[in-house]
Design brief:
Layout lengths: L7 H42 L3 E5 L7 E6 L9 E4 L1 H9 L3 E2 L5 H5 L4
Parallel strand pairs: 2-4
Antiparallel strand pairs: 1-2, 1-3
């Protein structure tokens, strides 16, 4: 009781003041925890939705393959489809370009 006032009314005022702040702090903690849970859930959903391999398709009839990408590569265009690992290996070995940004050929263990 070194720095607290000695009288009861001021002690009760301080108690009320700090109880109010404790409530605000608890609400802020709860909001931060909810935000963190939402971000983790969003990251899990994105990870689950990201395919392992993508082939970027060209324009035109039949949309020929243009580049092979690792799933989630930001350089992959909008015209694309999900492929398997074996399809990615096959396309690169047939001469389809591996993306120079995400380097699927390195991830697949292929030598150029």
């Amino acid at each position: 009781m070194f720095d607290l006032p000695p009288d009861l009314p001021r002690l009760r005022t301080l108690r009320t003041w700090y109880a109010m702040w404790l409530g605000r702090i608890d609400e802020a903690i709860q909001a931060a925890e909810e935000k963190q849970r939402a971000e983790q859930l969003k990251a899990q959903r994105q990870a689950a939705a990201t395919p392992d391999w993508i082939v970027e398709l060209g324009i035109g009839q039949g949309a020929p393959p243009v580049d092979v990408h690792i799933g989630g590569c930001p350089m992959a265009g909008k015209r694309r489809r999900t492929i398997t690992r074996n399809e990615a290996v096959q396309l690169i070995s047939q001469g389809i370009n591996p993306c120079t940004h995400c380097r699927p050929d390195t991830e697949l263990g292929l030598l150029e």
